[in-house]
Specification:
Layout: E1 4-7, E2 20-23, E3 53-56, E4 63-68, E5 75-81, E6 92-95, E7 102-105, E8 113-122, E9 125-135, E10 140-141, E11 155-165, E12 170-172, E13 177-193, E14 213-230, E15 295-313, E16 365-368, E17 375-376
């Protein structure tokens, strides 16, 4: 099947350097300095590009830009950088209070790129120079109760700054191969599972399905995450089908030779014979096999702030179906008056139970990390 890739490449680039993406609780960027002007009308303002930062806020796709202002900066202009130069946005001026060291721009949208330039007064007029561009990252947030369609191809979600698993949410991947790749994974009492506990094969398939493959590739993960890899249980076997007919009737008595005022006159007259014994019941059908749990590989460089729990369960084999009831014994034979006058035949024995299905295989969950002991469960 064709590989589905959700790819949004984040290139945090500056025309004069690079942008640092940092969390809100990190130290703010230090001051930049103003370089010597090369022209009285075109000032050169030097800003240390490594100090420009994009600050990640708590909510998904929430960021602000922190710009250390060069000494002497009295104004900043900003515009949205669009893909087409023909539709380039207009510069918007931002007034800067004298003495402000760092400008925080909270009016930015995830996934957009913005240009900034700094101004100072030259010969009584404001002049701008040294444009920089800042790419705002894009996050991905799963919806609560996310479940892949039955016919989904392998899924790769990558290129995002942060991937969020909502609070107490469950991501169900079923039989599919799913790869999540980004800078930071944030879980909040969240679960990623193949199948819910107790999931059993449907009548259309009998055997339990195997759990899929989960790969997590992140620089950092935080919060509480539970990985539950389960195989689907096999379906129970069906009961042996009952008979729709009874055994044959017993043999009847000979008919009377004559009827000369004496009922059923016949020296050889006797009651009807016992009915035939019913056949043994049909056997139950075999239970379906359980599915294997599935495989999970977590490559997380920094997992120091991640609480990680695991569950690995192979699918159980289905119980064999019970044997069907024996055939009902045949009715008695009739006497010479053609009336039942014998004994009903015995019913047949119950059929054998079907065989139980085989359980699936319990596979592994492996964590590879530089901050926790790497191990496979």
């Amino acid at each position: 099947m064709k590989l589905i890739q959700i790819i949004l490449i984040l290139s945090l680039a500056l025309e004069i350097g690079c942008v640092e993406v940092r969390s809100k609780n990190e130290e703010p960027a230090a001051d930049a300095t103003l370089a010597d002007s090369t022209s009285p009308t075109s000032p050169t303002i030097a800003i240390a590009p490594q100090k420009v930062s994009v600050e990640a806020l708590e909510k998904p796709n929430s960021y602000n830009v922190r710009l250390p202002l060069p000494v002497g900066t009295l104004g900043v202009q900003k515009k949205l950088v669009l893909a087409s130069a023909e539709t380039d946005a207009v510069w918007q001026s931002v007034t800067v209070d004298p003495g402000l060291r760092v400008l925080a721009d909270n009016d930015v949208k995830a996934g957009q790129k913005y240009a900034y330039r700094f101004g100072k007064v030259v010969d009584g007029e404001m002049s701008y120079a040294d444009q920089i561009q800042v790419q705002i990252p894009l996050d991905y947030e799963f919806t609560p109760g996310f479940r892949l369609a039955e016919d989904s191809a392998p899924v790769v979600i990558e290129g995002y700054e942060r991937i969020f698993l909502p609070r107490q949410s469950t991501l169900t991947i079923g039989t599919h191969s799913v790869t999540l790749k980004g800078k930071i994974l944030i879980a909040d009492d969240s679960i990623i599972q193949t199948f819910a506990q107790g999931t059993t094969a449907s009548s259309a398939q009998l055997h339990g399905r195997n759990g899929g493959k989960l790969i997590l590739n992140f620089e950092k993960a935080m919060g509480h995450l539970r990985i539950e890899m389960r195989g689907e249980n096999g379906m129970n076997g069906g009961a042996g089908a009952p008979y729709t007919s009874t055994a044959s009737a017993g043999e009847g008595a000979p008919p009377p030779i004559a009827r000369i005022g004496v009922p059923c006159y016949n020296s050889g007259a006797h009651p009807g014979n016992v009915g035939e014994t019913g056949a043994r019941g049909r056997p139950g059908t075999a239970g379906g096999n359980g599915g294997s749990s599935g495989l999970a590989i977590l490559n997380i460089n920094d997992s120091a702030n991640l609480r990680f729990d695991t569950t690995i369960e192979a699918g159980l084999g289905g119980v064999g179906g019970v044997g069907g009831p024996g055939q009902i014994g045949g009715p008695s034979g009739v006497d010479c008056y053609e009336k039942p006058n014998g004994s009903k035949g015995p019913d047949g024995a119950t059929g054998e139970n079907g065989l139980a299905g085989h359980p699936g295989d319990a596979q592994t969950i492996c964590l590879n990390s530089s901050t926790q002991n790497s191990k496979c469960y």
